[in-house]
Amino acid sequence: RKEVEQDPGPFNVPEGATVAFNCTYSNSASQSFFWYRQDCRKEPKLLMSVYSSGNEDGRFTAQLNRASQYISLLIRDSKLSDSATYLCVVPRYQAGTALIFGKGTTLSVSS
Amino acid sequence: DAGITQSPRHKVTETGTPVTLRCHQTENHRYMYWYRQDPGHGLRLIHYSYGVKDTDKGEVSDGYSVSRSKTEDFLLTLESATSSQTSVYFCAISETQGTGANVLTFGAGSRLTVL
After folding, report:
1. What would the pLDDT profile of A53-66 be if each residue is shown by its tens digit?
2. Residue B59: CA count within 13 A, CB half-sphere
3. Does A47 touch chain B (CB under 8 A)?
């Protein structure tokens, strides 16, 4: 299994739709997980940290399944402004506090 | 705002020339990183630093060197640029959340084209 793997998409959904992204990881010892959002030609920005079994922030829900080693991001009531690339991120213990980034899943929300 | 500034933001250079990218931070963070981002590869770690004069290699360090003579500055040098080093380079700092998890905050990026 690759260190971090995501479905690249693109996911094309209408406004108001619910969409979910999955990400698998290989290091079973990983403790901290994150979802970053990256807009076109911009830097990645932290969207959510993923805690224990999961957490919610408004329309966004992140879940962690340690047994199957995957994390997911659910976006409800999609907005045009949600169009971006979503990066799944896990820690890289061999390099200080560096993080390993998935290649990203592209979401396009249309009206 | 983590106060990260990258310079230059855009640079076009020729194969074989040396290039230095600068990352400047204003909040005394200990850890700093250089990543490159390419289509089909995502973000890959080049080098990182855990203090003044303390640096280590990442997964794609060949052809790159770094220096950190001051806490606030982390320099990435391409001694002899090649076309394969055409990329977007992101500097990042590490911050610890209240949960104890370390998250990265990125600069705006430096877009390098090697002709």
Report:
1. 788 999 999 999 88
2. 16
3. no
